[in-house]
Amino acid sequence: MVKLSLISLLFLLVLAFLHYCTTTTSAQSPAQAPAQTPTKPVLVQPPVQAPFQVTPAQSPSEIPIVQAPPRRAKPAPTNVTKILEKGGIFGVLIRILRNTQVINQIENQLNTSNSLTILAPTNGAFSGLKAGALNSLTTEQKVQLVQYHILPSFISLSNFQTLSNPVRTQASNTDEYPLNITTQGNWVNISTGLVNTSISGTVYADNQLAIYKVDRVLLPLGIFAPRPKAPAPAPMLAKPKKEESSSYSSSSSSLSSEINSPGAALQTSNALGLTINGMVCSIGIALVLAVFSVGSI
Fold first, then answer.
1. Could you count the other beta carbons within 10 Å of the beta carbon of residue 153?
2. Do residues 93 and 129 make contact, with C-beta atoms less than 8 angstroms apart?
3. According to its record, how does it sit in the membrane (predicted)?
4. Strands (E), 111-232
5. 185 found inside a domain
6. How many domains does the structure of the chain reveal?
7. Distance (Å, rounded) from C-alpha 295 to C-alpha 251?
């Protein structure tokens, strides 16, 4: 018991000592802090303003305030050949367009924002021509024939009625290449002076190009008009036969030889003198008989 009491007393003394140390440290800490001297207020002077200066104008920025939308890719040029090939019935027309190089002219016009209307004959339309009709044409005539099927503007089916005749084509002129177009309801009739036909369908149409199907080739007067026949040559005189010409030449040569020879000339003069003397004698005898007949009366 005595030992336990000593231990408890010792424990209390340790606690008391620790409490004393902590209180002493906390009481001395504000006294050990260095004293701060009061600071004097600093007068703040207003900044000295510089004299008014004009700032130079700045060049405009190259960066736009509103960004433009990305540009669309340029649309591919219209390929007339592919359009006709998809139609499936224009093989002869495609071949003529390529051979005459008119297809290059068409595509160049479409690429420069020009508008066109093409009246496209089918393969059956070309087969309806006379045999050798195309082969007999010159290169220039083939070019004119193809251009005769092209109108230099875009024409929708509803606008054909606004055209005035003769309609202008890309051929030479409207005198030798007239084209008359009339409408009856939904029908578009075409006349060249040699061929009458109508538009039988639309192959392709947008705001720049229109291709219409026709079942006959448009034959212009300037190429296919019937020509007047040449007058028959005047009949020539028949040449004399060799025998007659030889006999005639021999007789004429003999006659000329007789006339040119001196003997022949003398014989001719003697014969002429005898003839004159005979005539004089006959006249004298007639006068004598007349005198005697008067005396007897």
1. 12
2. no
3. Lipid-anchor; GPI-anchor
4. 116-121, 150-151, 180-184, 187-191, 196-205, 209-214
5. no
6. 1
7. 55
User: For the segment 223-256, what is each residue's pLDDT rounded down to a tens digit?
Assistant: 988 766 656 566 665 555 555 555 545 555 554 5
Question: What number of other Cβ atoms are within 10 A of residue 13's Cβ?
Answer: 10
Residue 218, both tokens: 């448009």
Structure tokens at 258: 């007789």
Three-class secondary structure of residue 117 per DSSP: strand
Measured over the CA atoms of residue 195, residue 200, residue 201 and residue 206, the dihedral's sign is: positive
In the chain, helix, strand, coil percent, each to 5? 45, 10, 40
* Residue carrying the six token digits 């701060």: 36
Residue 264 belongs to some domain of the structure: no
Measured CA distances, 130 to 124, 133, 226, 256, 273 (Å):
12, 5, 14, 66, 83
CATH number at residue 145: 2.30.180.10
Amino acid at 54: V
Domain that holds residue 125: 80-159+199-218
* CA 103/CA 80 separation, integer angstroms: 8
Residue 249 lies in a domain: no
Contacts of 123 (CB under 8 A, 6+ apart): 89, 90, 91, 92, 93
**Rounded distance between C-alpha atoms, residue 38 and residue 23, angstroms:** 30
Identify the sign of the CA torsion 108, 110, 114, 115: positive
Strands (E) in the chain, as ranges, are 116-121, 150-151, 180-184, 187-191, 196-205, 209-214
Supply φ then ψ for residue 291, to 5 degrees.
Answer: -65, -45
How many other CB atoms are found less than 10 A from the CB of residue 83? 16
Residues 12-62: tens digit of each pLDDT: 777 776 776 666 555 554 444 455 555 555 555 655 555 555 555 555 666
